[in-house]
Write the structure tokens for this entry.
Amino acid sequence: MLRHAREVIQIEAEAVQGLLDRLDENFVRAVQLLLECQGRVVVTGIGKSGLVGRKIVATLTSTGTPAAFLHPVEGLHGDLGMVTAKDVILAISNSGETSEIIHLLPSLQKIGAKIIGLTGSLDSTLARSSHIVIDVGVEREACPLGLAPTSSTTATLVIGDALAVALMRQRKFGEKDFALFHPGGSLGERLSFKIKDIMRPAKDFPSLTSEKTVGEFLSAINRCGADFALVLQPGGGLAGMVSDRDLRRGEIGSPDFLKRSIKKIMDPNPPTTEEEAPASEAMRTMVEKNLLAMPVLDNKNNLKGVVILRDLLSWKDRGDAAK
């Protein structure tokens, strides 16, 4: 049983790998056509191709490309009215000869919508009738009878994902955009979570002026059980940060080390974040820069609080557990 399962996975993996060698200028042209589309991307297919088409629609719409699914049979009985000349059709048929799709083509051409064909047969009716053709052909299906669409549907789905992601990148579709389209559930909560939702008040952490000594800094963080201290200006503004890691900048073995001013070892320009910034963005910055904490400033650069990595990681773990 496991041998058969591994064989299926191997066959489908080879089918996907084979797409790499066949990606060409047609893919680039398809992405450009979709980018220039002033209407919607209308995806059509029947049977397993239709199910794959619905998944492609879901991926496109959630990543910034307006899309809709047209069932070809319903299309032949009135639903073609949803298609306009401003739309781009993504027609899916592995054989390129699916009768329901073929019967749609003359009407789609009269409407004036551009057609991108996803097919495994480049000399098919669908291929000849399309403005752009993307080859999704596979050497063999994973089905032992060679009949049930398996490798071919996987290959088509992968090309659909490739198109969606290429469009995302061209549109510079970011996390803020993704959060806008995913307001519900744990995913929406994670993406819409702001720094202000998780930051702690600045008064919860030790703070010093830059004239204080290393010895006073160590006493302050030991009293609070903290790893860092905020360095404040006389008026309360942020002057910098100092952490126990910064001690390595000084001569720890020197008898005068504890008397040294923290101004000589602190970071006067620590990375900061804003109250309205996404929590995920702050976490990425902190992980990349190996930071324990980040000061939070308002739009006038006043110190509002501190976000610490431990809290961000706990928040992420809660979100992952809720998936």
Observations:
- Residues 2-22 form the longest helix (21 residues).
- The chain has two domains: 2-173, 195-322.
